[in-house]
Design a protein that fits this description.
Elements: E1 2-6, E2 12-17, H1 24-47, H2 53-75, E3 78-83, E4 87-93, E5 97-104, E6 109-113, E7 123-128, E8 131-135, H3 141-153, E9 157-160
Parallel strand pairs: 6-9
Antiparallel strand pairs: 1-2, 2-3, 3-4, 4-5, 6-7, 7-8
Helix pairs in contact: 1-2
Length: about 170
């Protein structure tokens, strides 16, 4: 998702969020249902004389919970690009700001590296001097084009690199 807003101090903010198909609460419900189903199956095997199934179901439930947590955390990534009169600031994180990169606005440019594969997505970098920070790594191609256009509208120079053969 790419959303733009203008603050009362006339600062443009572009919020980037990963596509999140299911909330954490929904994932917990799915995990609980799968855990209950696994426990019922283990109970059935236990009644048939195979009680050693329970530890394996427990491990399966824990691994499944870890996978759900990692997937949800990955989908909760977001970036905020703040365009002030003299600075361009990129804030990255999940629920809180974890990384901040500041660039001088007049020297900032958006570098577009085309995807290596025809179905791949472009890679975008905000650059100034020797600093380079990737933006929108989790966006689809259509959202990357929206971001590119919004940054261009705000006066950020766009530099598209040629496609490398091979």
């Amino acid at each position: 998702m790419v959303a733009t807003r203008i603050t009362p101090s006339n600062e443009v903010q572009i919020l980037l969020r990963a596509n999140q198909s299911a909330s954490w609460r929904l994932n917990l419900w799915v995990w609980a249902l799968l855990s209950a189903l696994g426990s019922l199956i283990a109970l059935g095997f236990s009644l048939l004389g195979a009680p050693l199934v329970f530890p394996f179901v427990g491990v399966e439930v824990l691994v499944l919970m870890g996978a759900f947590y990692c997937a949800c955390r990955d989908c909760a990534r977001q970036q905020l690009i703040r365009l002030g009169p003299s600075r361009l600031v990129v804030e990255k994180g999940h629920a809180l700001r974890e990384e901040v990169t500041g660039l001088p606005r007049q020297w900032a440019r958006l570098r577009v590296e085309p995807g290596a594969h025809p179905l791949g997505t472009d890679r975008l970098f905000l650059c100034a001097f020797d600093q380079r920070t990737p933006v929108g790594e989790f966006l689809c191609q259509q959202e990357l084009e929206q971001l590119r256009e919004r940054l261009r509208q705000q006066g950020v120079r766009v530099e598209v690199l040629p496609l490398r053969p091979g």
